[in-house]
């Protein structure tokens, strides 16, 4: 997960403000969950922001940094728009943050693995879907007029730099919590890794395999400065490179070489 920064005011696509204002007002006027559900399913206007959201992350999933070349990205609503689950159990008395359904700060570009529910070979369910646990249910925002600022989400947010720092990467390709066991920060990272399946679907193996090629290059050149190798490493740690957080971390294990240290 690499911090996604949107400079303010956002350079949104033309007409978006007009569309979202109309949609927010329309959905707010509906009186029950059934009507809202019907409206939101029919009016997925957030799709108009897909390219804009994709540009912001260098065309990577905001959660896992995958490029998703073979499947279209989804737009995830960070705060779910139509019902909430906590550890797979539907949260009673809350029909979702429907009033944020057309608010761009609630959108996260997501690959289908991170966003959609899917069981792995051990039949453990992954994917964010409607999951949105918070630290203390008493602070849960339940209506448009109430601020959600007091909520502390358990899921890490790619739009918060400090959240991204809670994930660490091993050269084995696995994503791990950076904070010590027993802390809330550890719990958040563990939950995010498991829920979104960061270490599932052969992803660690793929990361590890790609790192081994780089590691071989690094070993071959040793302390000799080689521009072609520098260019290759720079490519791997650039913002728009798939899993660049992992590569930065892995390359960091060669910090004893002054020329590598200078890159990081
Ligand atoms: Zn993803």
Question: What topology emerges from the helices and strands here?
Answer:
Elements: H1 16-28, H2 33-42, H3 50-56, E1 74-77, E2 85-86, E3 89-90, E4 107-110, H4 112-115, E5 118-119, E6 125-126, H5 161-164, E7 167-169, E8 175-177, H6 184-195, H7 203-221, H8 227-237, H9 244-251, H10 258-261
Antiparallel strand pairs: 1-4, 2-3, 5-6, 7-8
Helix pairs in contact: 7-9
Bound molecules: zinc ion.
Zinc ion binds at residues 61, 63-64, 66, 110-111, 113-114.
Q: How would you portray this structure in words?
A:
With 264 residues, the chain is mainly alpha-helical. The protein has 2 domains: 16-156, no CATH class; 203-261, no CATH class. 35% of the residues lie in helices and 8% in strands. The strands form 4 sheets. It has a two-stranded antiparallel sheet with strand order 1-4. Strands 2-3 form a two-stranded antiparallel sheet. The two termini are 17 Å apart. 30% of the residues are buried. The model has no long low-confidence stretch (mean pLDDT 96). Residues 61, 63-64, 66, 110-111, 113-114 line the site of zinc ion.
């Amino acid at each position: 997960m690499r911090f996604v920064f949107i400079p303010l005011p956002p350079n949104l696509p033309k007409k978006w403000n007009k569309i979202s204002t109309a949609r927010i007002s329309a959905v707010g006027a509906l009186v029950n969950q059934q009507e809202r559900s019907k409206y939101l399913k029919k009016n997925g206007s957030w799709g108009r922001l897909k390219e804009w959201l994709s540009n912001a992350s260098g065309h990577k999933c905001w959660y896992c940094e995958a490029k998703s070349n073979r499947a279209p990205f989804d737009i995830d609503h960070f705060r779910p728009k139509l019902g909430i689950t906590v550890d797979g159990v539907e949260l009673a008395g809350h029909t979702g943050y429907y009033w944020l359904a057309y608010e761009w700060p609630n959108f996260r570009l997501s690959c289908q693995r991170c966003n959609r529910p899917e069981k792995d070979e051990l039949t453990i369910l992954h994917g964010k879907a409607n999951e949105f646990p918070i630290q203390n249910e008493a602070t849960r925002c339940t209506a448009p007029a109430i601020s959600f600022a007091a909520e502390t989400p358990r899921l890490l947010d790619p739009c918060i730099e400090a959240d991204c720092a809670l994930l660490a990467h091993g050269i084995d390709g696995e994503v791990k919590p950076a904070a010590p066991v027993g802390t809330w920060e550890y719990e958040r990272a563990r939950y995010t890794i498991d829920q979104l399946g960061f270490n599932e679907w052969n992803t660690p193996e793929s990361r590890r395999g790609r790192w081994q090629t780089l590691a071989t290059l690094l070993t071959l050149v040793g302390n000799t400065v080689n521009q072609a190798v520098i260019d290759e490493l720079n490519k791997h740690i650039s913002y728009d490179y798939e899993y660049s957080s992992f590569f930065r971390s892995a390359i960091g294990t060669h910090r004893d070489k002054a020329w590598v240290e200078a890159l990081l």
